[in-house]
Amino acid sequence: MAVDSRRPDANKVPEENDSRPRFSRLGVLISGRGSNLQSIIDAISQGRLDAQIAIVVSNREDAAGLQRAREAGIETMCLKPRDYPGRDAYDRALAAALETHRVNLVCLAGFMRLVGLPLLAAFPNRLLNIHPSLLPAFPGLDAQRQALEYGVRFSGATVHLVTSELDGGPIVLQAAVPVLEDDTVQTLSARILVEEHRIYPEAIQLLLDGDWSVQGRRFVRGASPHSRRA
Amino acid sequence: MAVDSRRPDANKVPEENDSRPRFSRLGVLISGRGSNLQSIIDAISQGRLDAQIAIVVSNREDAAGLQRAREAGIETMCLKPRDYPGRDAYDRALAAALETHRVNLVCLAGFMRLVGLPLLAAFPNRLLNIHPSLLPAFPGLDAQRQALEYGVRFSGATVHLVTSELDGGPIVLQAAVPVLEDDTVQTLSARILVEEHRIYPEAIQLLLDGDWSVQGRRFVRGASPHSRRA
Fold first, then answer.
1. Is A131-230 assigned to CATH 3.40.50.170?
2. What is the rounded CA–CA span in Å between residue B215 and residue B2?
3. For chain B, what are the domain ranges?
4. What integer best gives the mean pLDDT of chain B?
5. Inter-chain contact B228–A151, Cβ cutoff 8 Å?
6. pLDDT for A158-210, tens place per residue?
7. Residue A218's closest chain B neighbor by CA?
8. Distance of alpha carbon B89 from alpha carbon A65, whole angstroms
9. Contact state of A173 with B153 under an 8 Å Cβ cutoff
10. Which CATH architecture has domain A21-124?
């Protein structure tokens, strides 16, 4: 059969035969209920996110998110820090588990541990986190409470690449929400969570699509400065 | 003529006779073009802000905003720092000028000087500033450039009470704007300025209306916790 070599993608493997796309295997790290994990599962099942979750890893056996994952037919694993001599050993084991499952992109979803160098080195610019504030405002724990106590009128959610600086990596997507006069930590957190569930799958898709780079401390869409301004 | 004393405001002085309301005399401090001064002038002339500008003070003779003020029939004054032996002396002179003009609320509108204790003491919780970022992110100079270089997806404008902490006082109002992929300092600044011009008059009216308090570092609307949740 003759192939028209003028068609630029004539020799491309048809996508429907490519059952395991090379760059869309996610590893999701959790510590708790995994509501952001659920939003990723939902986005995949609804066709909004073209990816598969290769493994869900928790540092806690009792993380409710592990059950969510099992119910969705996703392989799970619990790596307990106390089974390792130190933080680096733990992070090496975590990186090895993710690599064994051929994970391309690691998504932190309420993973309550600092990410150390062994994991950062194994997945450079391939580690995403979501944080419940408009970073750089209110990094660290209890971001919603920090925002309320500061008295801001807007807060939000941030998806960012993970670096060694706590909540300080390049920002992929953000969403802003108003802070209302009678908000409590609970009502503000709920309003932010709606946005977290919206932007996390969107940011993952954006990362998987490629055509981005990190310039200085900025996440820049478009392969080059030329295409950005086209 | 009989007066129906059951009407609660039967004895109230009619507002149209109250040509100089006690709490609505503004002093506006500028250093440059005074675009926020213009937004205050416009809001007053359009009836969106129930106040009068008693005096516009600049620390620079060449501030274009002085001309705007004169064109609107507003008294202006230039206080040059070099005419005073130091910062405190300058701030005392500034406070005296504002008090002479019976100013109740001082609005910084691009006033490029740190406000010192003599002015803060003369107008406690009666000094407002507007800043082109969503504070606490990006305080200080060049806030729009800081936001672009950090790579945030949202920035905005903040009206806050002035305290001795630079850009750190209680937040009265904020507005959020998106940062676009191809924004420059100019395009982002222009988008933020639209919001500055909207929220500054609104925040001034809110201050003049009363029924607010400062609790800790927060600006809280409603006279008491009870009325807030009513």
1. yes
2. 45
3. 21-214
4. 89
5. no
6. 999 999 888 999 999 999 999 999 999 999 999 999 999 999 999 999 999 99
7. B151
8. 63
9. yes
10. 3-Layer(aba) Sandwich (3.40)
Residues forming a β-bridge with B56: B28, B76
Best probe of the B interface among A159, A174, A195, A218, by most B CBs < 10 A, is A174
Output the average pLDDT for chain A.
89
Does the pLDDT of residue A124 top 80, yes or no? yes
B218 contacts on A by Cβ (under 8 Å): 149-151
* Distance, CA of B22 to CA of B19 (rounded, Å): 9
CB B105 within 8 A of CB B204: yes
Helices (H), ranges, B27-168: 35-45, 64-71, 87-100, 117-122, 143-150
Q: What is the pLDDT of residue B223?
A: 60
Contact B134 A135 (CB under 8 A): no
- B154-161 vs B171-178, strand pairing mode: antiparallel
- For residue A70, CA distances in Å to A31, A54, A65, A75, B39 come to 15, 12, 9, 7, 58
Residues A27 and A105: beta-carbon distance below 8 Å: yes
Pairwise CA distance, residues B86 & B91, whole Å: 9
Q: Which residues of A are part of the catalytic machinery?
A: 131
**Residue with token string 């945030």:** B152
Q: Which CATH architecture has domain B21-214?
A: 3-Layer(aba) Sandwich (3.40)
Structure tokens at B140: 């200080």
Report the C-alpha gap between A148 and A158 in whole angstroms: 17
CA distance B129 to chain A (A): 15
* Distance in angstroms (rounded) separating the CA atoms of residues A227 and B63: 41
Tell me how far apart the alpha carbons of residues A219 and B153 are, in angstroms, rounded to a whole number: 10
**Sign of the alpha-carbon dihedral angle for B29, B31, B36, B37:** positive
Tokens in use for A21? 């796309």
Question: B147: distance to nearest CA of chain A, Å?
Answer: 10
Q: Among A96, A14, A19, A116, which residue's Cα sits nearest to residue A55? A: A96
Residue type, B35: S
- One DSSP character per residue, A54-94 reads EEEEESSTT-HHHHHHHHTT--EEE--GGGSSSHHHHHHHH
Q: What is the ipTM of this complex?
A: 0.84
**A56 vs A7, A230, B4, CA distance in Å?**
40, 39, 75
Q: Which residues of B are catalytic?
A: 131
Angle at A198 between CA A196 and CA A204, to 5 degrees: 90
> What is the value of pTM for the model shown?
0.86
Contacts of A218 in chain B (CB under 8 A): 149-151
> How many beta carbons lie within 10 A of that of residue B83, not counting itself?
10
